């Protein structure tokens, strides 16, 4: 459920990056296609097909980039509070309700775009605010469910959830090509609501609270993992964290990593469509090749970490 939840987390954020290719009316397309006609044979570039009839907006390049980036305004605000909130009220509620509300907002995205550019920007900011809390929220739950020797495997599988973007792209590309860009939001939103219902049905914050696991499994987990009572919560040493060099090294390294990653996620579909002049179906094929390379890294990372543990 955690893996599927984070795959959905990616799906809810990248649906716009593929849909925006068809959301914006490109009044330069007629001139651009004719200008590159001689290049199509040399570079195997496919010209734009006849687009289906659907709503398009006259948004500028600046507005388009603003819409693609505003998700992260809210996303960065809930990274730290999301983890703390999960410690206090439980990861089940934080992760579940954040994803559920984000899925509902995704279903409302076409309506927000029709209402005006400001509305869709505001919706994406709130969407980022909700999904930003999910990543840190799962760590308190993992501390109660995953034995120490299995955590690297759990984390590598959890991080493999970026596969959700790779799966979302071809599905949304097919839907957009046949039913219009609105279908990308409806599809991911409905899947998100369905997952949220399943999450609350089968997931609990700790083994002690779960009504359906076996006694042997519950006793084993309670024995190997510390289980707090939930009545008192350890205070956070904010000063020590803010002055810790290793903490800032992790923050800077991760920040640089995700900057490059999300630049590709946000801009690659538009680049392929607008600059290389591939159609929507070819965009997703190229995208899949990028993610195919990425997904090989997680099992390798887990193997190396297990090897280091066995040596030390």
UniProtKB/TrEMBL annotation:
Main location per the UniProt record: membrane
UniProt xrefs under PROSITE patterns: MFS
Molecular-function annotations in GO: transmembrane transporter activity
Record's bilayer topology term: Multi-pass membrane protein
One Pfam family this sequence matches: MFS_1
GO cellular component terms attached to this protein's record: membrane
Signal peptide start-end: 1-19
Compartment(s) of residence: Membrane
GO biological process: monoatomic anion transport
UniProt name for this protein: Major facilitator superfamily (MFS) profile domain-containing protein
Organism: Euphydryas editha (Edith's checkerspot)
Lineage, broadest ranks: Eukaryota, Metazoa, Ecdysozoa, Arthropoda, Hexapoda
């Amino acid at each position: 459920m955690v893996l599927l939840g984070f795959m959905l987390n990616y799906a809810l954020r990248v649906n716009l990056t593929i849909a925006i290719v068809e959301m914006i009316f490109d009044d330069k397309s007629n001139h651009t296609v004719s200008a590159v006609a001689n290049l199509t044979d040399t570079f195997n570039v496919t010209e734009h097909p006849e687009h289906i009839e659907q709503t398009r907006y006259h948004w500028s390049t600046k507005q388009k980039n603003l819409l693609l980036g505003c998700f992260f305004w809210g996303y960065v605000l809930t990274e730290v509070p999301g983890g703390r909130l999960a410690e206090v009220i439980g990861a089940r509620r934080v992760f579940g309700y954040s994803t559920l509300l984000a899925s509902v907002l995704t279903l409302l995205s076409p309506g927000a775009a029709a209402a005006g550019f400001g509305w869709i920007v505001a919706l994406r900011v709130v969407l980022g605010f909700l999904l930003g809390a999910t990543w840190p929220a799962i760590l308190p739950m993992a501390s109660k469910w995953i034995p120490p020797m299995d955590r690297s495997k759990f984390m590598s599988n959890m991080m493999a959830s970026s596969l959700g973007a790779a799966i979302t792209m071809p599905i949304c590309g097919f839907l957009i090509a046949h039913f219009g860009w609105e279908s990308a939001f409806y599809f991911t939103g409905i899947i998100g609501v369905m997952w949220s219902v399943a999450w609350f049905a089968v997931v609990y914050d700790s083994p002690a609270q779960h009504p359906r696991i076996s006694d042997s499994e519950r006793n084993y987990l309670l024995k190997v993992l510390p289980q707090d009572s939930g009545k008192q919560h350890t205070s956070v040493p904010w000063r020590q964290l803010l002055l810790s060099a290793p903490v800032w090294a992790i923050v800077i390294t991760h920040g640089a990593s995700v900057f490059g990653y999300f630049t590709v996620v946000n801009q690659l579909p538009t680049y392929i469509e607008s600059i290389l002049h591939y159609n929507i179906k070819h965009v997703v094929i190229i995208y899949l090749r990028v993610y195919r390379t990425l997904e090989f890294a997680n099992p390798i990372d887990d193997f190396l970490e297990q090897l280091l543990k066995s040596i030390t």
